[in-house]
Amino acid sequence: MHSSTTASRRRRSVLTVSGAAALLVAAPLLTACGDDAHPGAAAVAGGERITMGQLQSKVAAVRDAQRAAPHGAEMIKGSGQLTRAALDSLIRERIVRQAAKDSGVSVTRSEVGKYRAQLRKQAGGEKRLKDALLQQQAVAPSQIDDWMRVQVSVDKIAKAEKIDPRTPKGNLKLRKKLSKTSESLHISVNPRYGKWDSKSTTLGNTSEPWLKDLTGKQQDREQQQAQQPQM
Predict the structure, then answer these.
(1) Do residues 181 and 95 touch, judged by C-beta distance below 8 A?
(2) 144 pLDDT tier (thresholds 50, 70, 90)
């Protein structure tokens, strides 16, 4: 069991060393909450509806990719909160998009391609990059460019605001900016997905944070708990 856990952590770490800063700052502290999401919507951000269809489509793409992966069963078991994570991602995209607009920055297709080439080299090839993003971030191959656009946007926002997210002080400053943007969007979430808690930055009563645990320790703990005999 120990060797399996170690191997699992090693697979997850393909992108965590060189890409840790970008992955961390891409997860803003969403501080808005609400129980009055518009009917038929998973959430509303800045008056823009995130429909149930959009959410279900995103989840389906990830599940299809996981089922086709060599360790698909393991990934599916380790992503029980996929729907909430997918909703988090859809909300995050809108927050970053608004923050970029406020900072006067935009991202070109060429910049996304350059960033993808950089991560491809770090991961050791396109296949390993796709596998790592699917396992670490629950990003399906068809969603990679959108995910990378968010990463590049956050980086350009930091530069425009003269923030160095590689330092604790800079990282906190960037998170506060994104948090402030989320407040301005008056985000409301459909109650079926829980209630946003701004203090613990979690959705509902789940103990899983919306800020990703890039070390894999949280997932290892969950796997160990799942293997313990039930009373």
Answers:
(1) yes
(2) very high
